[in-house]
Amino acid sequence: MSFSKIKRRDFLKIMGWGGVGATLVGCDLPTTVTLEEGKEKVVSYLMPEEYVIPGVGVWYASTCQQCPSGCGIHGRVREGRVLKLEGNPASSVNKGRLCQMGQASLQAHYNPDRIAKPKIRRGSSLVDATWEEAYGLIAEKTANISGSKFAWMTGSVSGHQSVLLQAYLESIGSGNHFVHETINNAVWAKVCQDMLGDSNPRIRLDKAQSMLSFGADFLGTWGSPLHFSTEYAKFRTSPRGTLIQVEPNMTLTGANADLWVASRPGSEGALALGIANQLVSKQGLSMSGLPNSVQSLIRSYTLDETVTATGVDADRIADIAATLKRRSPSVVLAGASAQGHEHGYQCVAAAMVLNVILGNIGKTIESNGEFAYASMAPVSGNTHSLVSFSQAAADKRFDVVFFSGVNPVYTAPKSLGLKESLANIPFKVVFSHFNDETTAMADVVLPLASTEEDWGTHVAPYQAGVGEISIQQPLMEPLSTETRGFGDIVLTLLKKRKETAYEGFADYYAYLRNAFSTIPAEHKNGASDEQFWTDVLAAGLIDVGVKKTSLKVKGVEFDMPKEMGNSSAMILAPSARLGFWDGRHANLPWLQEAPDQISKVVWDSWAELHPSTAKKIGVKEGDMVKIASASGEINVKVYIYKGVHPDVIAVPLGQGHDAGFSRYAKDRGVNSLSILDPKVDKMTGELALYSTNVKVTKAAKTDDVLVRFGGSETQVGRKLVSTIPADVYERTEGGDHVA
User: Fold this and answer.
1) What is the pLDDT of residues 196-213, one digit of tens each?
2) pTM for this one?
3) How would DSSP label each residue in 183-231?
4) Residues of the chain with CATH 2.40.40.20
5) Where in the chain is the domain with CATH 3.40.50.740?
6) What is the DSSP letter of 325?
């Protein structure tokens, strides 16, 4: 079968324009498409152009891959080397801004510890090999494998990488794709799907006058932080919006709040229902549209009942309800701590009930629409997949597993037994930039080109009502001739299984080039294929639109166990931070030395402990404490801080790596994920990250030095910083001011 004889429908699928988007093609594409129609002369990416002046940088558009948000970037290239990254102003995701993780992508690119050659296991060791040897071994192990015996675990994936990945799974006859992200919005997405019919609604902070967030750190790690930081600036523009943050330990968002409420993990749902009770009984709002059982549940959470369940003062509960009613429209969000326990779904659902009662649906919570091309749509990761994969590995279900964009041996709690269960998988292939805990257990390691050296297309999981496909293009030539792009590797593997379908593509660049020559004409604005491709590369993105949809409130029944958040045991909070993320960036010294947004600690782990709790335990700042759960223990220095609930000890994610994950990360700090108990949310199967009871004691070893920037967190009564009430600001500096 020749390339030119591929059926139109199959060709659309291969090119990524199948699924929902196929209906948009119309008649502009012929029934057969040959490679000659996309043929072009390919020259060096860095061949000097007439407009290039030595010593003067040239900016090229691409896409950041430091987290799943998919921000657009511009890279400054001078004399063939990329020197600086900034945000792409044209991107609807980040609108020209770039966080510290994005800036630090250059250190990942130039990192001396990058894997430079393929590796194959010989006995107990991984040794350097050629690409031919690696591909040959993979072909041998997958030649006659049953689809049920093959699996692929990835991080969040989208664009044409997702198209090729799914094509490879189909070539084997496997549907085993595990998509894992430790930091995710999976429970929020499930509740939104169940209650609104849309798993990823648009949050209009720019339209809200007040916000109530249950652990959603939208300025740091929740959703799309750079996008929401831009929207938050609009929210704070006169008339200034009011932010209320409820969480067990202070996040970057909590530090910016007008009111910060310390909550015990598990009590968020009760607090939400108590506020709902006040909105109905005291503020006169209606519960119409909610199931009778949910209405009865709300009535049961009287002020006294809510105070007992949450420990939050009655006046504060009443004030929050009054603020949401007075400063409308409002919006209520729920994030990590709200969803991070065995009844996380119920807690997030209770938060969504507040949006229904407050009339926010259709005002500050809108539909984002449906992305036009289903095969390229983002597939977001979760922790349920990690739990499921761990069980499957323990049950010896797989003979061959590929890993890309994930390090599950690090992110999986020891209680899941994943590290031991991987021994049950005879053949493991890891696509990676660096050696880490998972590559150490691989049979084949394939070295990836950096994001500054690779081609790709990406669809951000959260977009504000648009359907952008962002482009990733090489900003410079590869530093190592032995690394390969993810798309090139998968395309090569596909050719070995389905040669006739993919033989026409010399490499992944040729595949993408042809894909964009066959995009529906309505997206090209009359430009030729060559001009359209040039324009897309220059802009860094193309908006292919979305299918308009609308939200519709659905009656979903749920309960709220009275004992939630009412225990006396201490709880471990493995909090996420903008920086190390889930631990994937601990090998970047820029991020190691960047002070944490809250504690200002550098190059180490720490445990945030309330002063009253520290006094009971008998520790001072810098002392070591032992944190012991039923699943293990860690020893870490103490940071004494009022911004944490007295019953909570918070240990941020990211440190505690081993297995040679860079000279900058190995054996530094602790991994708070490692001692989590194997508890999951009963509705979604997500890991209950905030549900592990621990015992905290002073460790025998004491270290009085906790390296951190800054000094006291208080003004010690000296009024160094003057503050004024928001209403005074509005009268003097805000929109109501009259000169």
Assistant:
1) 999 999 999 999 999 999
2) 0.89
3) S--HHHHHHHHHHHS-SSPEE-GGG-SEEEEES--TTTTSS-HHHHHHH
4) 570-702
5) 119-182+375-447
6) H
